[in-house]
Amino acid sequence: MAIVLEDAVLNALRTVQDPEKGQDVVSLGMISGLVVKDGNVGFSLEVSPERGHTAEPLRKAVEKAVFALDGVTSVTAVLTAHRSASTSSGHDRQQAASVKGAGLNDVAHIVAVASGKGGVGKSTTAANIALALQAEGARVGLLDADIYGPSMPRMMGVSGKPTTADGKILDPMIGHGVKLMSMGFLVDEETPMIWRGPMVMGAMQQMMKDVDWGSLDVLIVDMPPGTGDVQLTLAQTAPLAGAIIVSTPQDIALLDARKGLNMFRKVDVPVLGIIENMSYFQCPHCGERTEIFSHGGARDEATSLGIDFLGEIPLDIRIRQASDCGQPIIVTEPGSAYTGAYRDIASRILNRLNARSSGQRSAPKIVVQ
Ligand code: ADP
User: pTM of this prediction?
Assistant: First the structure.
């Protein structure tokens, strides 16, 4: 069934001509990363970087042609303004270096926030850390690379579409003073995210180099949860200065966190440390402390793995409520102990980054394309 639909999709795409070249988009090799799943269709439409977002009408036309097919319930066509995404292996550090573009030229440190599995509070921590770094005086950007489930627009309380002055480079959105980019701004929320390697790569490369990040001290990258191929590829795509691993305290999450650590070691990205999230619960009524997911596991794990422990964040309903309504707790309760905990972690991160760039290990060089 899927195979048949795949053929039908390609046939439908063959009816769409690129007005600039006068040939159909399939023959021109502009379609890549085609995925068909239960009537949901996704693919990339590759155009030359010069055409950039002026190819939007063509993108709409290919979506429309495919959507008209029987059995198709949704279509996601993503413009990728770079060449040979479909042939890129994504596993070549050398090649990854070549994607560092103008958008990141003036970004001092790119830091990934990762977790071995979903639901440990990685995105919540990434958002609060970004804001805490800003509170510590840093100029901060936040790139939501959690392409399958982008949550930053909601957590940072930002909606709408990014603007572009020249039709090529996107202006980042701004949430509570932090520059922000997310697939959530580029693709409709209801659109199912069915991506494959090349599409993820294409989208990530665009969000890094085709965004006017400007001058930043730190760009926080909220990685997708897990340690599979996609994460590995992303870790190689972004010129990372370091990675932070978020874990809950219990053994099983820590096992996953260890996988995350190994993944970054594999691609030679230093792990700046572990954060223990949902570390303990303090009853707001009686003050009693309960260690719901046990406690201290991440600190012990960090010690035994020889990496830094960056700090612990309690499990608290106010942290959840604040990020659910787009006003992270650092914004709503700047004087609270939670904000203090995030800021302590942020200042540890800044110290480590500064120590690295002042000699211990130079930050990866940004190469202009
Ligand atoms: P992940 O990115 O790891 O999937 P999220 O950041 O989306 O996890 O968090 C999952 C849920 O847990 C969200 O509803 C979030 O608000 C909540 N959450 C995260 N950290 C905390 C915390 N320290 N206290 C209370 N709730 C939290």
Answer: 0.72
